[in-house]
Here is the input.
Amino acid sequence: MNYVVESYENYKEEDRLTTNNARKIEFIITTRVLDEVIDAESKILDCAAGTGVYAFWLADKGHDVTATDITPRHIDIINQTLKTKKYSMNTAVLDATDMSCFADDTFDVVVNTEPFYHLLVEQMKEKQGVTEKLKAENQMLWGKMNNIIACAEEIVVRELVYA
Here is the structure.
C-alpha cells in the first residue's frame, strides 16, 4: 500500500471535493445517501477518511466519529482542523484493509469511500501486466490503464454503492 501513501502525500486531497462541479456533486450525493441510511447519533468509523470531509460532516451532525486513514498527512490535517471544533474525534493512521484493532460491533456504521477502488486497480493492473516498466517502454499498451480505472470505478459503483 506504499504507492497509495506516496501518491496521497503529494496530492491535495483536502481540495478534491471542491475543485470542480462533478466532485461537488459527488459530495452532495454521498451526503444525501448517508443522511438517508445513518440513524441519528450513530457511532461511525470513517476508515478511509482522507482529510476528513465526510468525517467532519458526520461529526457536525452529532455523530460520534472515529477517522482513520493510511496517509499520515491526512490525519495531521484532521487533527489540525479538530482544534477549531467544539467536539473531539478519535483519529489514527491505519490501513483500511486491517481494522482488527477494533472489536466487532464497535461501530454502528463504517464509511469506506475509497480503499476498495485502489485495491481493485492494483489487482487489475497486476492481472493484466500493466507495470511502471510497461509505462516507460510502451505508452500505447500503458493506455490499458484508462480501461482498468474505468472498470474499477464501475465495479465499485455497481457492487458497493448500489448493491
